[in-house]
Amino acid sequence: MISYEEFILSFAGMKNPIFFTIFFLIFGCKPTKNPIDFAIRSSKPSISIVKKNLKSHEIQIKLTVINEEEDINYEFNVDNEDYFYPASTVKLPIALLAIEKVNESKYITLDTPFRLENESKKYTLRDEILKMFVISDNESFNRIFEFLGQDYINGKLNALGFDNTKIFHRLSVEDSDNLNTKKVFFFLKKDSISYQTFNREIDPNEMNGLKKGKKFYNNNGDLVKKPMDFSKKNKISIDDLHEMTAQIYLPENYIDKNSFKLDKEQREFIREAMSASPNKLGLSKEEYPENFVKFFVRGDEMVNDSIKNNLNIYNKVGTAYGQITETAFIDSDTNKFILTATMYVNENDIINDDIYEYESVGIPFFASFAREILSNIKTE
Length: 380
Prior knowledge:
The chain is an alpha+beta fold. 34% of the residues lie in helices and 17% in strands.
């Protein structure tokens, strides 16, 4: 089939004005391209290197451009059946569900002190949620996981319509999939209350057949020459993750729909947590720079100060097993959009060897790609 450009060139020598009038009325304006396709076609080196191996990187991308009249959705290669390990992006729904469970209680708030059994230090849910976003703290996630429990988490997610999300285990601990949660003691002014849950076993067929990589290292450090089984690992689809972010930043679209129940103050707190820099926790800039766990736009910091000063990024990232994922609401002077993406950066395809291309491929691609979106869409 002849291309649009070839069709134009075939008539380049024609001088008939009537022809050109008719031609350009019919063909003169090409359809607006999908901004994702436009960004992927960029000649930027960090994008070009990925473009050469799109299939091996297993990229999935979803974009919502926010306009006053109508939000417009775009996607690239999104497939809810195409499993990827979500890593720390599970902290987003866990934070929202912690707030929901607080709202269901007559006794506790986000600021009620609590501790886990066999621990002496006390925490608050507010501080733990903040740490989950600002530095992606796994221990904070695990404490909130103990408070919620697998059954509550997945029952709520199912009721909210997130059919492609399952959160079964804690992060980076040996007993990550222990079905019994630790007792959680909340200290009220005059008394204390405790929570503990006992959860059902995972249906072995519920997420069966989810295998990644060609080889993997097991917990004993032995190389197993077959794909790693992820059927009992956490799961979030790109559609679900994108929807969760949309519910936070586009609440007006969910007034009459089933969604996370957050009041205005709680929504503002989540937004603050998702945008805060490590400075807010008093952490050093040397160890935790301003762009820490912010990959879109700022991941490689190849962005000038004028853009930084007029840009707000509210996000959550995740990296593990060679998978890099991010969801974000990005707000600048000219653009507002929600962007969610995941890609596989594991060239040797060996899981758990800690040889991944996050710094050399994944983060530079996320940063450049998001900048292309930022600079090439205009919203009113």
